[in-house]
Amino acid sequence: MSSIKKVLIAGASGTLGQSTLAEFLRVEQFDVFVLTRPDSKKTFPDSVGVLKTDYSPQSLGEVFSSQKFDAVVSLLNRSIGSEVERALINASKTAGVKRFIPSDFGNDLANPEVLSLCSWFSPKAKIVDYLKELESGSFTWSALITGPFFDWGLQNHGFDFDFKARKFTKYEGSTPFTVTNVGTITKALVNLLSDSERLRDTANKRVYISTHLLTQDKLLSAVEKVTGATFEVLQVSLEETERKARESLASGDMVGAFGLAKVALFKNSYGDFSKKQSNELLGLPQGDLEADLKKYVNPIL
Ligand SMILES: NC(=O)c1ccc[n+]([C@@H]2O[C@H](COP(=O)([O-])OP(=O)(O)OC[C@H]3O[C@@H](n4cnc5c(N)ncnc54)[C@H](OP(=O)(O)O)[C@@H]3O)[C@@H](O)[C@H]2O)c1
Pfam families per the record (predicted)? Predict the structure, then answer.
C-alpha cells in the first residue's frame, strides 16, 4: 500500500486514457476522478467523479480546491504542446499533489539524438525539464518511457506490416528494440502508485518499461508462424530513410518526416530499453508475443 488514495486522471477519455481509467477503477485503494474539457463529448462510468476544466489557472484552481488529490496522471493528447500540461503541473504542485505523471509514454527523449530526430516531441522533453525544476521533497514526478505501443500499433498502423497485401517493410540490420502493450502501461501506472517502495524508487525519474524485446526478424517470423502467411519483405535503408525524412521535415511535410521515428527506434539500439527497464520493480508480467499476435493480428488478416 502507499499514501496515494485520491487520483486525478486528465485525458481519461483518450486512447490510453480509457484503458488506464478502467485499470484504476479495478483497484480498491484508489478514489478516482477524471478531468475533462467543458465541451468534450466524452462520457465516463457513473462511479467516476467528473471534473470539468478549460485548463486555465483559474479553472484548475477551482478543481484542485474541490478535492485534495494525492496523484495526477496526465494522459493528454500530445499535440496540445506543453502549456496545458504546465498549467496542470503548477496547479498540482500548489495544491500539494505528491506524484505527477506527465503524458510522456514514448521515445527516450533523455537521449539528445532521439530528441533531435523526433523534434516534434520536444514539448514532452520540456515538461520533464520543468518537472525537474519543480521537484521537491513533497512534489515528485515519474515519466513512463514505453517506446511504441505494440497492441495499439498492430491494430492502427500495422507496425511495418501491410497485413492485407502481405508485405513487411524491413529496415537494414536486425537491431533489438522494445515495445509496450497498453495493458502493461496501465498496470505499471497502478502498481507504481499503489506501493510505497515503488513510489519511492520511481520518484523524479524517467521509468522505462516494455512488454516485448524484438528485432524485426523476430517479429516477422513470429507473425508468419502465427498467421501461416508469407510476407514479401521490402528492404529499406535506414540512412536513406533518415535523409528523405529530414528533407520532408525541412519542407514542413510531417507525414514524410515520420520516418525519423523509425530511425530513432532502430539506430544504435536507441529503442531498446531492456537493460534499463523497471519491469521487475513494477511487478509487470512477461509478455507473450505469440498470444498477442494471435489476439491482435489474426482478426485483421
Ligand atoms: N508510443 C506510442 O506508440 C503512443 C501511441 C499513442 C499515444 N501515445 C502517447 O500517449 C499519450 C496519450 O495519447 P492518446 O492517444 O491516448 O491521446 P488522445 O486520445 O489523442 O487524447 C487524450 C485526451 O486528451 C484530451 N485533449 C485532447 N485535446 C486537448 C486539448 N487541446 N486540451 C486539453 N485536452 C485535450 C481529450 O480529453 P477530453 O475530451 O476528456 O478533454 C482526449 O480524450 C500521449 O502522450 C501520446 O503521445 C504514445
Answer: NmrA
Q: Does residue 165 share a domain with residue 88?
A: no
Looking at ligand 1, which atom is closest to the CA of residue 17? Answer: 16
Q: pLDDT tens, 105-123?
A: 999 999 999 999 999 999 9
Judgement on whether residues 47 and 95 belong to the same structural domain of the protein:
yes
In contact, 60 and 53? CB cutoff 8 Å: yes
pLDDT for 257 equals 86
Helix axes of 83-94 and 57-66: crossing angle, nearest 10 degrees: 40
Dihedral pair phi/psi, residue 113, rounded to 5°: -70, -40
Place of cell 521515428: 261
What is the predicted pLDDT for the residue at 221? Answer: 97
CB 146 within 8 A of CB 212: no
- Mutate which of 60, 63, 74, 76 for ligand 1 pocket (most atoms within 8 A of beta carbon): 76
The answer to the question of residue 278 being in a domain is no
- Sequence-distant (6+) residues with CB within 8 A of 32 are 7, 9, 21, 24, 25, 47, 48, 49
What gap in Å lies between CA 290 and CA 177, rounded to an integer?
Answer: 17
3-class secondary structure, 8: strand
H helices of the chain, where? Answer: 15-25, 57-66, 83-94, 112-117, 122-134, 150-156, 182-194, 196-201, 216-227, 238-250, 254-257, 259-266, 289-296
**Ligand 1, atom 30: closest residue by C-alpha:** 80
**25 in a domain, yes or no?**
yes
Q: Which residues of the chain have pLDDT under 50?
A: none
